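User: Predict the complex.
Assistant: Input components as received:
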Amino acid sequence: MTSTTTWRYRGDVAARAVAAIGGGYVLTSIVIALLALALPLPRADAVTIATLLSFVVYTCVILWVFATRSAARAWVGVAACSAVLGALLWAWQGGAGSVA
Amino acid sequence: MKDGLRQSMAWVHTWAGLLVCWLLLLVFMGGSAAYYKHEITFWMKPELHKAADAPSTVTPAAAATLAVRELQQLAPKANAWFLDLPHERNPLIYASWTNPPKKGMTREERRAAFRTQNVTLDPMTGEKTAAPRDTRGGEFLYRLHFDLYYMSAIWGRWIVGVAAMFMLVAIVSGVITHKRIFKDFFTFRPRKGQRSWLDAHNVTAVLALPFHLMITYTGLVTLMFMYMPSPTKALYGAEQNTMFAEVFPNAERVKPAKQFAPLADIAPMLLQAERAWGQAPTRIVLTHPNDASARIVLHRPAGQQLSNIEPTMTFDGASGALLSGPKPMSATLDARGAIYGLHVAHFADALLRALFFVCGLAGTAMVATGALLWGVKERQKYAKVVAKGGRVGFGVRLVDALNIGAIAGLPIAFAAYFWANRLLPVEMASRSNAEANCFFIAWGIAAVLAQIRPTRGMWRIQLTAGAVLFAGLPLLNALTTATHLGVTLFGGPGLRPVAAFDIVVLLLGALLGWAAWWLGKPKKAAAARQPARASTARDDAVIDPKPMEAA
Amino acid sequence: MSALILAGAALAYSGFAAKSLTMDRHYADIHGRGAEPSARLRRQLRSIGWLALALSFAACIAASGWHIGPVVWCGVLSIAAWCATLLLQYAPRKAVQGVWIGIPAVAALLFLAPPFN
């Protein structure tokens, strides 16, 4: 019971909350943008499917952040995935020239 | 590992739910009411009841012709006319129009002007009905549940969107953490304290899980391009208009030719549509009437498909020629329309609409029992302290107060809105705003009183107030209008919505009254003072989430 | 249409009532504490339950088509499940006797559903 009021516990919760809500939103945005680019469909369909799936992705990220063993792990996971996929997204868009 | 997952999901479920539950109560109550927004609006405009009572034998083509004739006089220079022809949910002809925006008009001014740009016609006489009182009716409750109020719509939509995302996380984590979801499927054990609240939460949540999951996800989808813009940015960059035209191909706008051309007769167009669809259109949109580029778009009535984007037939307004059927949409865009359509349920007939409403109320009960369960569980931890004369912690007191203010206070607000509709002078200025203010004043009073004294007595007072206000509405209706239950129950089909409203509010009032009575039973008070003994240690492990281990 | 949906609701209730009997708790409510259904009875009841739910689905499709029918079915399932839950708590014997309403409901389904008339 007392462990709920330690600063360590609160720090853990706060760290995970930021990773889940903020980091999760960033990661989700990157993932679905990549998905939209990768889908071999007309633009309207790709953007629709990717956006439809966004809430599924976001939910999974949030739940994973809270289920994983530690807040540090959560941060590393979200940050690393965002970095790698973000670089991929940047390369895809930069490499393709104009965004449209 | 599995137990670790269940524990962490229990923690997520508790906090994702608790942080937004009071807002969600507003969303669920407003959303449930929104399924009957047309009926609520009709009840709130008693001036229209007389015209609606006469059985209408007017054909859709004749009704449309009447409406067009009226609009030619009222708004010949409008940039769009909107016709809603009589159908089972609305026996009158409703026509509205939009004017080209004047320079310097703010969006609020345009919206306020738009609310005056409409007319209701009696289909039998073709004449304007008695002018209804200025009220937003059910539309206020509908908008409330995603735009909120006293703030720009964008802010409201973001706040509700965040709450909806919390709700989605709460649902999924709740399912993961519910160890005995199948064994406890039909389990409801009353009079066992904490266990009973958990059972009530499970029963309202699990047994309508498809609805709750659907309504939350589809709710997010309605504004998904705003909430999650990255795919749009990735594929379309800054070309928002292109994206809009491609994803919503049937919403294209035509520019006016600025050249006069008389409007072709609309009746043959309706007959053509009726032949094609087997039923006449009930919604007609005329853009740029009396212009050479006028377009008349007929919408097929809802009920055949899930998508809220109905097939249309577009006619040239000047020549009357059929221009095109609807642009074919890809399966993906159709699916998006269906997902959106599931949320707004335009396709629902009377029975299905009632099912949606009941499930919406169940969602309200799910959120309420969840919040109450948290309070009961937390209070257990202070049982010894309280027994010695001490006080509960800050969190418990706050949650108790918020619970009263939302669970008992919101119904008071809804009822106050309807009472205001009948009691505010018809001629007063900004009447519809005043009605909305009454909603929030009532809610504010209830919420503040709850914060001052979050006690069992306050619960009973507020629940009783809600019961009296709701159950008193049919009586108020009888005292202030001519279309009370005695008339509407035995009148024509046009007045059935009024009767239904009176009966439903009566039932809701009875429900609130029963809750107030149940809280007053002395046995309950004794049980609440004892710590719950009914749960076994195993049950506690399921329902008492241990705090997560710090790393 | 409404008659078919009513049949669908009755079938859904019937299925849920049957399935509830496969659960120790509800079986014990009828037959006494500690009583458990035999493995054979459990299998039979489970099959009846699933069959009734499937027929309930068919009734809703017959009433409202393939698009709107499933939506109706979900709503009907919830109502039936709530009825079953309340009855199992307050009148367990009557609740279980309700399994039999599946039979007239099937008759109604056969009589009213489009392929058969």
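Chains A and C do not touch (no CB pair under 8 Å).
Let me know if you want any component modeled separately.
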